[in-house]
Specification:
The protein is α/β, with parallel strands linked by helices and 272 residues long. It has a single domain, classed as NADP-dependent oxidoreductase domain (TIM Barrel, Alpha-Beta Barrel), CATH 3.20.20.100. 34% of the residues lie in helices and 21% in strands. The chain has eight helices and twelve strands. The strands form three sheets. It has an eight-stranded parallel barrel with strand order 3-4-5-6-9-10-11-12, surrounded by six helices. The protein has a two-stranded antiparallel sheet with strand order 1-2. Strand 3, helix 1 and strand 4 form a beta-alpha-beta unit. Helix 5 packs parallel to helix 6 and helix 7 packs across helix 8.
Length: 272
């Protein structure tokens, strides 16, 4: 698979990104959720196999429960061949440094390629994550301390790029003028779900503006957290049509069958 530079970061990534959530979190249509049962050893072998197929970008988070799977995968490959993205809900500088140190130790690596502020809203609010844990999700302004920790970690070589994920159109607009954020990932799918504010058209235009600002852009929730799994081909093709202003597409994948199917779709639509 052809690689592309992720914004101005210098990172070169496959346009298909391996979302690791399905290794540990049940996914699928409402009432028919499956998956979520891969052991770390199984997940690690799948990730290494995906790299052999050309997928060099692996996406995890401290609340997915897939750090162990990524750690096992890294044991099977050359570290510099892989771009790993991790996420945290940290807000303060102390929490940010704790998140970086936890990520490096838990995944077993000397550096994290991309460190994310996770699901940033335009205004802070209380929410529940995919595992049912309730917490306060701080705004971009409220996470200035954690972002500063990431910037400090970049200076020491422990982090290569800073990033933010969001489901909010307004937050996308805010981050355009935020020079310390290198990469942004946000939601995009044909069900128009997982967009917290603004219309689909406004959300797409906000994504375009982020790309034009020089930041790396990749999108998530193509299958609406698995709800569109039975229509995966149509859903993925929908998201791929916006390739002019999206660098990569993060798709939650369960096994190498999923990887091969998605690579065929990318080849069909993008010619790569």
């Amino acid at each position: 698979m052809r690689k592309i530079k992720l914004g101005d970061t210098g990172l070169e990534v496959s346009r298909l990104c391996f979302g690791t959530e399905p290794f540990n979190i049940k996914k699928g249509p409402d009432g028919q959720k499956t998956q979520g049962d891969k052991t770390p050893l199984e997940g690690g072998r799948i990730l290494a196999g995906a790299l052999e197929l050309g997928v060099n970008m692996w996406d995890t988070s401290d609340d997915y429960g897939t750090h162990p799977h990524v750690a096992e995968g890294l044991k099977l490959v050359k570290r510099s061949d892989v771009v790993v993205a991790d996420k945290t809900n940290a807000a303060t500088n102390k929490e940010g440094w704790k998140a970086v140190e936890f990520s490096l130790e838990d995944i077993g690596t000397e550096y994290m390629d991309i460190m994310f502020l996770h699901i940033v809203p335009p205004e802070g609010y209380h929410r529940t994550n995919d595992t049912g844990i309730k917490y306060y999700s701080a705004s971009l302004k409220e996470r200035a301390g954690a972002l500063q920790a990431f910037m400090e970690a970049k200076e020491t070589g422990q982090v290569r790029a800073t990033a933010m994920s969001t489901h909010s159109t307004e937050t996308l607009r805010q981050v355009v003028d935020f020079p310390d954020i290198d990469i942004v990932c946000t939601t995009l799918n044909m069900a128009h779900s997982h967009i917290d504010d603004g219309s689909l058209e406004e959300h797409i235009e906000a994504i375009r503006a982020v790309k034009e600002s020089g930041k790396g852009v990749y999108v998530i929730k193509l299958l609406s957290a698995g709800r569109l799994r039975d229509n995966a081909e149509e859903a993925i093709k929908y998201a791929l049509q916006f390739h002019e202003f999206i660098h990569a597409w993060n798709i939650g994948m369960y096994d190498l069958k999923d990887v091969r199917m998605n690579l065929e779709l990318f080849k069909e639509v993008l010619g790569e």
